[in-house]
Amino acid sequence: MINSDQLLNFAGKSDSDLVDAINAVLDRFSINTTRRVCYFMTQSAFETSNFSRFEEDLWYSTPERLVAVWPKRFTLNKNLPLAYAPDYVRNPEKLANFVYGGRNGNSAKDDGWLYRGRGGFHLTFLDNYRAYSWDVHGNNSCVATPELVAKPEDAMLSAGWFWDKHGFNYMADADQFTKVTTEINGSAATVPKRLQVLNQANKIF
């Protein structure tokens, strides 16, 4: 369990509702050792900019940044068989529908936007929203109202659900931080930055 002082020292944020939501997840998904807690707090803090943003930011002001983030999807050269990056600048809805559309249950026109990344680990895609909603709530509430996943309770519950589904407790026990990061982020590129957060978590929790 964590307390408000620890959250304040770790993330610069003191919020009793958030503390309660986190503690409910730690208890429900057996995140009950120091290393497990530190791993969970590190990954969720990093993904949400210290628990300040529970919805994916898809606002890009430059095409160069889009190409840097999605080099296999966007280009600055109209002659290449990739999406022309300037067409997606400052248009998060169009971007979400392009990068997330047509995959993992996202079949309707605006599913990419509706089921963009939300929650502690940025739950993404209709299939994941549906599976989470039924596993945790026993209903389709988070599919019908995906904005719920950006609220503190479901934001943290969805992260705990993802954590449990991927066996992260066992990875934490084995000190496989890079593997956990890759499962969450799809890449190990941010491991050095996340390790800095982990070092802070190790001092606080």
Number of strands: 2
C-alpha end-to-end distance = 9 Å
What sort of overall outline do the alpha carbons produce when their principal axes are compared? globular
Number of helices: 12
Overall tally of domains: 2
The averaged pLDDT comes out at 97
Order of helices and strands: HHHHEEHHHHHHHH
As a whole number of angstroms, the C-alpha radius of gyration is 18 Å
Specify the biggest β-sheet.
2 strands, parallel
Blueprint of the fold:
Layout: H1 4-11, H2 16-28, H3 34-47, H4 63-69, E1 74-75, E2 83-84, H5 92-100, H6 111-114, H7 126-137, H8 141-144, H9 152-165, H10 168-173, H11 177-185, H12 191-204
Could you characterize the architecture of this molecule?
The chain has 205 residues and is an all-alpha fold. The protein has 12 helices and 2 strands. The chain starts with a helix and ends with a helix. The model has no long low-confidence stretch (mean pLDDT 97). The chain has helices at residues 4-11, 16-28, 34-47, 63-69, 92-100, 111-114, 126-137, 141-144, 152-165, 168-173, 177-185, 191-204; strands at residues 74-75, 83-84.
Gist of the model:
This protein is an all-alpha fold and 205 residues long. It has 12 helices and 2 strands.
What attributes does this structure have?
two-stranded parallel sheet, 12 helices, 2 domains, mainly alpha, 56% helix
